[in-house]
Write a structure and sequence with these properties.
Helix content of chain B: under 10%
Distance between the termini of chain B: 36 Å
Structural class of chain B: mainly beta
Number of strands of chain A: 11
Structural class of chain A: mainly beta
Oligomer: heterodimer
Largest interface: A-B, 21 and 22 residues
Order of helices and strands of chain A: EEEEEEEEEEE
Radius of gyration of chain A: 14 Å
Strand content of chain A: over 45%
Order of helices and strands of chain B: EEEEEEEEEEE
Largest sheet of chain A: 7 strands, mixed
Number of helices of chain A: 0
Shape of chain A: globular
Distance between the termini of chain A: 40 Å
Amino acid sequence: QVQLVQSGAEVRKPGTSVRISCKTFGYTFTRFHIHWVRQAPGQGLQWMARLNPTDGSIRFAQKFQDRVTMTRDTSTNTVDMDLSSLTSDDTAVYYCGRVLTGVGIDYWGQGTLVTVSS
Amino acid sequence: DIQMTQSPSTLSASVGDRVTITCRASHNIDTWLAWYQQKPGKAPNLLIYKASSLHSGVPSRFSGSGSGTEFTLTISSLQPEDFATYYCQQYDSDYTFGQGTKLEIK
């Protein structure tokens, strides 16, 4: 069945970077975009970016376009997201999600907690 | 950017009640709107897409309506498992979520 499995929790110091992986199973990887959404503690959902696994093209929310990079590996069906220049405001749970075109995010990863603390 | 505004932020209701949550878009998004349910410590779950289409496996007590800039999510008869936080999301131009509505037990 369809699954998105994310890498484990991370702790980083301010000013550093973090990489989160999203490995997909159970469907044709190149047929669905992968999106990243984050949720700060006690806060709502914030859309960050999306990647088209077919060609690697990316769209970012304006807030993140200078700090987020995304790559995909079609041999392992994995999408990685790098977030740089971390501050305490980046402390959040980060989710990857598969998007069914015209529908929305129909499958989600389990979430990865990133804690930024000195 | 398209902004999404939900109301109310918190809603207190009882099992069996009919409840409605509203979502307003800052620009016309046609019917490119989805609704999600999120429970504490869990990823969101898709309920409604294209403003009014029920996602597979979602109970029929959930319904959505609206187009353009104003949308509603209705739960016809609240069940204990429905107490959660609900988010709208536009996907007309990239993605934007509303700030969420927490549905609490009265």
